[in-house]
From TrEMBL:
Pfam families: CarD_TRCF_RID
An individual GO BP term: rRNA transcription
Domain CarD-like/TRCF RNAP-interacting: from-to ranges: 1-113
Protein name in UniProt: CarD-like/TRCF RNAP-interacting domain-containing protein
Source organism per UniProt: Roseburia intestinalis L1-82
InterPro entries: CarD-like/TRCF_RID, CarD-like/TRCF_RID_sf, CarD-like_C, CarD-like_regulator
SUPFAM superfamilies the UniProt entry points to: CarD-like
Length: 165
């Protein structure tokens, strides 16, 4: 079980801080269950309620500084998540985001960056679906790395580029 004040990665929601662990009085909520009350980092007004025993929503602790640095160093070796079929691609990205696996997030970002480059070379724009999943994967990845490494979110890409060069 996580503790109040701890930072976690929650499904496709990204990095959150645990504000409370309590029973909630809301319609549709099981009043006997304990819930994590989460505050998404970067969304001052947002609140997420997750049952402490949820098997549907994956939550994990944020990575350590050493793990974050190792991940950045490994970025060039992480495989693309190439799926040729449009419908299957969206489902694959959606599932990858839900896993809370930062390697999967890197795969999505790398794949969609490559796909966008190819589409631009053909005179086409990136698709709305690609843009949506690129943003979601970057938010999860950069949000967690930013918190762990103490680098502002908006400077994360530069930090990564500098570390890899």
């Amino acid at each position: 079980m996580f503790e109040i004040g701890e930072y976690v990665v929650c499904g496709a929601k990204g990095v959150c801080q645990i504000r409370d662990i309590t029973h909630i009085d809301m319609s549709g909520a099981d009043k006997e269950k304990l819930y994590y009350v989460l505050a998404p980092v970067g969304d001052k007004n947002g609140t997420i309620y997750v049952p402490t025993d949820s098997e549907k929503i994956i939550m994990r602790r944020t990575i350590s500084k050493e793990e974050a640095e190792r991940l950045i160093d490994e970025l060039p070796q992480i495989e693309l998540l190439w799926v040729p079929d449009d419908k299957q691609r969206e489902e694959t990205y959606k599932e990858a985001l839900r896993t809370c696996d930062y390697h999967a997030w890197v795969s999505i970002v790398k794949t969609l960056y490559q796909r966008k480059k190819e589409r631009l070379a053909q005179g086409k724009k990136a698709t709305a679906v690609d843009e949506r999943y690129m943003k979601a994967a970057e938010n999860g990845l950069y949000g967690e790395l930013s918190l762990t490494l103490g680098v502002p979110r908006e400077k994360m890409e530069d930090y990564i580029r500098e570390r890899l060069s």
